[in-house]
Write a structure and sequence with these properties.
Length: 71
């Protein structure tokens, strides 16, 4: 299914797809009430590129539902 159904735009997916190339990896984190400065601090000295997006409560619930169905 399309992630746009849960609030993740096709443009965001294209951007991630272009950046995650052979020999690289990605870590996706679904959290609530995260403070991006604190998240960034945890990755200091690891040369990451942090990409973030915000979802509404409804979109987050749909995303959680979509992943629970795939398990």
């Amino acid at each position: 299914g399309s992630m746009s159904d849960v609030g993740i735009s096709d443009a965001f997916i294209r951007d991630v797809r272009e950046k995650v190339t052979p020999g690289t990896s990605a870590l996706f984190l679904l959290g609530s009430d995260a403070v991006m400065d604190r998240v960034s601090e945890r990755f200091r000295n690891t040369d990451p590129e942090l990409i973030s997006t915000n979802l509404s409560s409804e979109q987050e619930a749909k995303l959680r539902e979509a992943f629970s169905e795939e398990s």
